[in-house]
Amino acid sequence: MSLLTLDSVSARYGASQALFGVSFALAEGEALALMGRNGMGKTTTVRAICRMVATGGAIDFAGHDLTRLKPHRAARLGIGLVPEGRRCFADLTVDENLRAAARPGPWDSAAVAGLFPRLAERQQQVARSLSGGEQQMLAIARALMTNPRLMILDEATEGLAPLIRQEIWGAIRRLKAESGMALLVIDKSPSELSSVCDRAVVLERGAVAWQGRFGEMTGAVKQQFLGI
Ligand code: ATP
């Protein structure tokens, strides 16, 4: 059974329409890549799921109709978002950021410290003084502390140095292997995505151009819709 189902979802920013009937489903524990070139609607799809943009169509999450909910309710149902641009509370310490997000479940301070030892060493440091990569780890750790059933990672390694990117992908792979959590992952690197995700949905101008298993993605699809 699907955990998340989008059925003919449209979205608009004022007069300008950004999504045109997007449909796909994500099963419990599955990792799905959301792909497409710049401006094709990946972040808008995430905003539609998280109730941050006006939408049409139907979005079901664990039997709840998300289109009827306000954003904070969607989060409480078990959707953890790591947004583009890694937003944390800049003036709070690492520990305070984590505690502000905490909800009951297996992901507590000790568990996220195991995933990101660098954060554990910086518990009392204010978020604004962390490096970009450490702030990204904190953004992921915060989402984990809400103990979600679905984690959405929007460009989690964008603009980071190669070594830190590897560290973050390593953590995402561990989440996939060990947590049983469903993942929706947006990134520019097809090779990293295919190392974590079972399937991919490819967007083109706000609509699904292709979806299927990574191994079935043809060269023509890659060239036409991803520019690879
Ligand atoms: P990127 O890889 O660049 O982040 P994306 O696939 O995530 O791209 P979106 O950010 O979802 O794409 O953008 C889809 C379309 O919606 C684009 O045409 C974009 O210009 C438009 N758009 C995005 N955000 C807004 C906004 N706040 N107001 C108006 N239009 C927007």
Any chance you could write out the topology, listing elements then pairs?
Blueprint lengths: L1 E12 L2 E12 L3 E5 L6 H8 L4 E8 L2 E2 L5 H6 L2 E4 L11 H8 L7 H7 L1 H4 L11 H14 L4 E5 L7 H17 L3 E5 L3 H7 L2 E6 L2 E7 L5 H8 L2
Parallel strand pairs: 3-8, 3-9, 6-7, 7-8
Antiparallel strand pairs: 1-2, 1-4, 4-5, 9-10
Helix pairs in contact: 3-6
The chain binds adenosine-5'-triphosphate.
Can you tell me about this structure?
There is one protein chain. With 228 residues, the protein is an alpha/beta fold. The protein has a domain at 1-78 and 187-228: P-loop containing nucleotide triphosphate hydrolases (Rossmann fold). Helix content is 35%, strand content 29%. The chain is built from nine helices and ten strands. The chain has helices spanning 42-49, 71-76, 94-101, 109-115, 117-120, 132-145, 162-178, 190-196, 219-226; strands at residues 2-13, 16-27, 31-35, 54-61, 64-65, 79-82, 150-154, 182-186, 199-204, 207-213. The chain has a six-stranded mixed β-sheet with strand order 6-7-8-3-9-10, with helices on both faces. Helix 3 packs parallel to helix 6 (132-145). The longest helix has 17 residues, at 162-178. The model has no long low-confidence stretch (mean pLDDT 93). Adenosine-5'-triphosphate binds at residues 13, 16, 18, 36, 38-44.
Looking at the structure, the CATH topology of the domain at 1-78 and 187-228 is: Rossmann fold
Cα(first) to Cα(last) distance is 33 Å
Low-confidence stretches: none
Give the biggest sheet: 6 strands, mixed
The rough form would be described as globular
CATH superfamily of the domain at 1-78 and 187-228: P-loop containing nucleotide triphosphate hydrolases
CATH class of the domain at 1-78 and 187-228: Alpha Beta
Ions and ligands:
adenosine-5'-triphosphate
The CATH level-2 architecture of the domain at 1-78 and 187-228 is identified as 3-Layer(aba) Sandwich
Fraction of residues in H or I helices = 25-40%
Q: Work out the strand percent.
A: 25-35%
Strand order of the largest sheet: 6-7-8-3-9-10
Radius of gyration, rounded?
Answer: 17 Å
Q: Can you count the beta strands?
A: 10
Structural class: alpha/beta
Number of helices: 9
H-E order: EEEHEEHEHHHHEHEHEEH
Q: Would you tell me the overall average pLDDT?
A: 93
